[in-house]
Specification:
- Helix content is 31%, strand content 19%.
- By secondary structure, it is α/β, with parallel strands linked by helices.
- The strands form four sheets. It has a five-stranded parallel β-sheet with strand order 2-1-6-5-7, sandwiched between helices. Strands 3-4 form a two-stranded antiparallel sheet. A two-stranded antiparallel sheet has the order 8-9.
- Helix 3 crosses helix 5.
- The protein starts with 13 loop residues before the first strand and ends with a strand.
- The chain binds 6-methoxy-1,3-benzothiazole-2-carboxylic acid.
- 6-methoxy-1,3-benzothiazole-2-carboxylic acid (JBZ) binds next to strand 5 and helix 5.
- 6-methoxy-1,3-benzothiazole-2-carboxylic acid binds next to strand 5 and helix 5.
């Protein structure tokens, strides 16, 4: 795991720095896709220990909240010193926080276009609000992002999630670019259809006949129908958001058959 910026930085597609009081949490980044991207020179990843910028004997990074309340808040002076050293003018500051905008595939696509990202991992009740405010006032880009509506203890695991989602979008990280467009949360706006492989019969369960038929048009229609039905059952919010111009006659008939009807705007709503 790279730690100190003593090593000269390569000419990578994307530079990522992570600042955390638990740099070991980021060790999984060395494995799998992200590690391979780093090894192949597409990604230049450095993890920093925030406590290197603490100035007192106990390397304190937090203090009690002004106005009272539970827990501790991370000090702006320690974060300010760290970011003054790590943030370059071209870098986007990413702050994982439960009060952030939702991190989605579209946000991952935006971040993958940036030259440099710095992830600031908070702990305790979060980072003093002036840190983000200061960097915006200085003309920097700050993205405060949440990976979902559940409780984590800090920004490290959220950073891992976001870094994996971004790194796999870098040109050259994934072998087959088709797998980037056909998967769930691609542009179709539907969940992925169910997939099967050998053996054709297992535990009394048979692979659907159509998939063995070699009828490519029938297979495509079957898969789209299953994708729509899965999305209706699991993510009705995604049905509401579908662009109606992307729906063919068979899509519309299937939706209507499941009690979804087109409204004034052409979008489908549950009847
Ligand atoms: C996140 C204080 O740092 C935290 C704490 C919880 C948390 C994050 C950062 S990011 N939860 C989420 O995305 O759900």
């Amino acid at each position: 795991m790279p730690t100190a910026p003593t090593r000269p930085r390569g000419v990578a597609e994307l530079r990522i720095d992570v600042v955390s009081i638990f740099p070991d949490y980021l060790a999984p980044l060395e494995l799998s896709l992200v590690g391979k991207a780093a090894q192949s020179g597409l990604l230049d990843l450095t993890v920093h220990d925030l406590r290197s910028w603490a100035t007192d004997r106990h390397r304190t990074v937090d203090d009690t909240p002004f106005g009272g309340g539970a827990g501790m808040v991370m000090r702006p002076d320690v974060w300010g010193a760290a970011l003054a050293d790590v943030l370059t003018p071209d870098a986007t500051l990413v702050v994982p926080t439960p009060s952030g905008e939702t991190f989605t595939q579209r946000v991952a696509e935006q971040l993958a276009l940036e030259p440099a990202l710095v992830f600031a991992c908070g702990r305790y009740e979060g980072i003093d609000a002036r840190v983000a405010e200061h960097h915006r006032a200085a003309g920097g880009t700050v993205r405060e992002l949440s990976i979902g509506d559940y409780v984590l203890n800090g920004g490290e695991v959220a950073s891992l999630v976001m870094i994996e989602a971004v790194a796999r979008l870098l040109p050259g990280v994934i072998g087959n670019p088709e797998s980037l467009v056909e998967e769930s949360h691609g542009e179709a706006g539907l969940l992925e259809y169910p997939v099967y492989t050998k053996p054709p019969s297992w535990q009394g369960l048979d692979v659907p006949e159509v998939l063995l038929s070699g009828h490519h048009a029938k297979i495509a229609r079957w898969r789209r129908n299953r994708a729509i039905e899965r999305t209706i059952a699991r993510r009705p919010d995604m049905i509401e958001a579908l662009d109606p111009s992307m729906l063919d006659k068979a899509d519309r008939a299937l939706l209507t058959g499941h009690g979804w009807l087109p409204g004034e705007d052409g979008r489908f709503h549950q009847a």
